[in-house]
Amino acid sequence: MNKKAAKDTGKAGAKAAKAPTQKTIALNKRAKHEYHLEQKIEAGLSLQGWELKAIRAGRANIGESYAIVKDGELFLFGAQITPLISASSHVIADAHRTRKLLLHRREIQELQEASAQKGATLVPLRCYFKDRRVKIELGVGRGKHTYDKRHALAERDAKRETERALKGVRD
Prior knowledge:
Elements: H1 2-17, E1 22-27, H2 30-34, E2 35-45, H3 49-56, E3 60-61, E4 66-70, E5 73-77, E6 80-81, E7 99-102, H4 105-116, E8 120-130, E9 133-143, H5 146-170
Antiparallel strand pairs: 1-8, 2-7, 2-9, 3-6, 4-5, 5-7, 8-9
């Protein structure tokens, strides 16, 4: 009986070890402030070898980027991946190259319909590793007005103040 119990825990440990790991590479912190996010979707990112090495070194920035559906394919514009100094001499490294995003055709059509609505934009929210692959989390967002942004900041400040007051009461 003890052997069987040991085998069962071993299997559970193996399953836990195979859980997908997600290490964040780059965040777009301004996206939540600038847009009302309606839908989120995960997309793969088509990269060249030097880009992957630069991403592993933490040289990616998606703050000014956006995605567009063009000819039935999804592309990422404005993302910056700064090449390493030791990049190969026979490869011309373009930091702001347009990169293809990898999704199923059905998902691309859904995103195209969502982004075709007035005021909707495909915004990258974060870039991360998922089981050795680079993924981008896209959000369908509508731009906020300045009064919406001020209201969100006021709510956040009020929440902080109440948490501070409650923390003082508990201590």
